[in-house]
Amino acid sequence: MSEQPGRPDDEQRSPRSSSATPGASAEGDRSLAIGRDFSGIASTGEGAMNVLIQAGQASVIPAEAFTRMADLPPPPRLTNVPLRTGLFVGRGQALARLDEALEGPGGAVVQAVHGLGGIGKSTLAAHWAATRGGTRFSPVWWITADSTAAIDAGLARLATALQPALSNVLPLEVLREQAMQWLATHGDWLVILDNVNDPADVQPLLARAPDGRFLITSRRATGWHRLATPVALDVLDQAEAVALLSGILTHEGERDLAGADDLCTELGGLPLAIEQAGAYMTQAGIIPREYAELLADHPGAMYRDGAEGVDPARTVARVWQVTLDRLADDPLPGQILRVLAWYAPDNIPRALLGHLVSGPALVSAVGRLAAYSMITVKSDTLAVHRLVHAVARTPDPDDPHRLPESIAQAREQAATALTRALPDRKEFGLWPVWRMLLPHVDAVTHQAEPEPGSALHFLRKEAALLRLTLATAAGQIEDRQRALSESVRDLGEDHPDTLLARDDLAYSYEYVGEWDRSIPLHERNLQARLRLLGPDHRDTVHSRRNLADARRWPRTYASLPHSTQQLLDIYHGIPANAEDER
Q1: Rounded to an integer, what distance in angstroms lies between the CA atom of residue 334 and that of residue 547?
Q2: Quick one: three-class SS letters along 319-339?
Q3: Is omega for the bond preceding 139 within 30 degrees of 0, making it cis?
């Protein structure tokens, strides 16, 4: 129990209650006696003091602490938005969308900005709150919301900021309730819930506050359809990325920016990576081209290490490690990401993951990676941000998701999947499959020299042979164009040798995938043979079949979701005699 000034200790502590009922009573001038166990608020009388008694302790509660939250006006310009001293570039479209939603009239508005870790969600929210929200809303309150405990703590701090008399008096759960009551009975406030892991964590708060504004940031791209309007945040475009890097490097004076454009491309326009690189270069006194060389030679260290004074958790490697930690209850998402990291970053057919697992397990694992923005799902293909792609295949013995043996195993799994998916390069009709897979073959075989007899060795050999075949076919086009021109000049348009020369040129165009150039040649030959030989002649039938195939293939590919397996299935399902196309 807190002591009163001018009152002897023995007088304050002497038992005066004669009541048999456990509790507290007041006798005399603002004196208080406690009988047996008591927990609650005891009042010494009107206009006197109120005492909170809890767990054997007592605290004096000022009278102003009893103002109803519904009657408590907000302090003017109350805010705790973290100071963001870094440069802010671009994001015009996202800012305009937040302007329209959060500054408009109406009831509760909830916007959830989501995207890859390090893409600048918190920076966007802080910038909008500082430059727009502060003049429109009060309070503007920032809550780190990565757990329910963190949300409760942020709400408790809001309660004591609204009513300082409650500070160090009420327990956290009471303060949280006080804040929620205030939000539920007021409007024109803005609460930023930063880094929400699970939409369910914020649902109770959103349900209690129907008239305010919430701005949420989260790595979660899914789960917002019933709670908030999602706002997807993408990387900076090239000009914005270069502007950010240049602003960091020239903050204290002119600097050599040689290689800045190439470095921003290598960093994939990711703001965190650009800020990490800029701080490192400023500290080390090196230029962008030198940083890019270090990144190429020592990727593990450069992805992991920031400049002195920078939060070690705010580097690209550590940020994504946190995300993968959240998915670690199932090893499959991490395994899939490591395999994808060995392919080219874009247009990866889902069929290349079928050797790992199939069915619902694969769908679920891919979906969880997409939900945390670690990959992008595009119809029947997948994509990985180029920096996630690079980090995920860089070994780090201190990162459980990038252990050297796990990354080596993923490379072999990627090579094995490609080996099984590659069609026969002699089947020119399947060359579109080859073109789809060739960037991934190049990516997985690009590193060290593969051992003879390995899947990687087979892939490199097949890719080299295909390129030789394609080059030969391209060279044949010029020769066959010349042969056709000479035949037309010397023998005429409809001479049998001219028709054969036209067929040969059409085949060459098809070998390199130029169907729009082969089809007119087949059409011209079919009309000539119908006129000269009749519909039933074998050369006419052959010409009709050539035209049917040439028309069918590009139409088939255009209508497909680009699945390797589907291309193979459709190719083998095409009738041998396709004379239905006339």
Answers
A1: 47
A2: HHHHHHHHCCCCHHHHHHHHH
A3: yes
Please give the order of strands across the beta sheet that includes 213-218: 140-144, 190-196, 213-218, 109-114, 229-232
State the DSSP code for 79. B
How many angstroms separate the Cα of 110 from the Cα of each of 22, 218, 227, 506?
Answer: 48, 13, 7, 59
Residues 193, 194, 200: CA angle, nearest 5 degrees: 60
Query: For the purposes of burial, counting CB atoms within 10 Å of the CB of 273, is it exposed (0-12), middle (13-18) or buried (19 or more)?
Result: buried
DSSP string, 347-402: -EEGGGGTTT--THHHHHHHHHHHHTTSSEEETTEEE--HHHHHHHTS--TT-TTS
Q: Tokens for 435, please give them.
A: 């073109």
At 244-267, the pLDDT tens digits run: 999 989 987 888 889 999 999 999
Q: What is the separation of C-alpha 270 from the centre of its chain, rounded to a whole number of angstroms?
A: 11
Cα separation, 349 vs 367, whole angstroms: 15
For 460-476, give the secondary structure using H, E and C: HHHHHHHHHHHHHHHHH
User: How far apart are alpha carbons 168 and 152 in whole angstroms?
Assistant: 15
Torsion angle defined by CA atoms of residues 74, 78, 81 and 84, in that order, rounded to the nearest 10 degrees: 150
d(C-alpha 278, C-alpha 263), whole Å: 11
With beta carbons less than 8 A apart as the criterion, state whether 544 and 574 touch.
no
3-state secondary structure (DSSP) of residue 312: coil
Close Cβ partners of 541 (under 8 Å, ≥ 6 residues apart): 579
pLDDT in tens, 277-327: 988 999 888 999 999 999 888 888 888 877 776 777 778 888 888 888 888
Farthest-apart Cα atoms in the chain, separation? 131
State the Cα–Cα distance between residues 292 and 261, nearest whole angstrom: 11
Mean pLDDT of 176-191: 90
- C-alpha span between 22 and 20 (Å, rounded): 6
Q: Which two tokens stand for residue 49?
A: 């003091």
pLDDT in tens, 318-332: 888 888 888 888 999
Q: Which residues neighbour 5 within 8 Å (Cβ) at sequence distance 6 or greater?
A: none
CA-CA distance, 108 to 210, in Å (whole number)?
Answer: 5
Kindly calculate the radius of gyration of the chain based on its CA atoms and give it in whole angstroms: 35
**Residues, the chain, total?**
582
User: What type of residue is 518?
Assistant: S
Phi-psi region of 514 (alpha: psi -120 to 50; beta: other; left: phi over 0): beta
Lowest mean pLDDT among 82-96, 165-179, 380-394: 82-96
- Sequence letter at residue 486: E
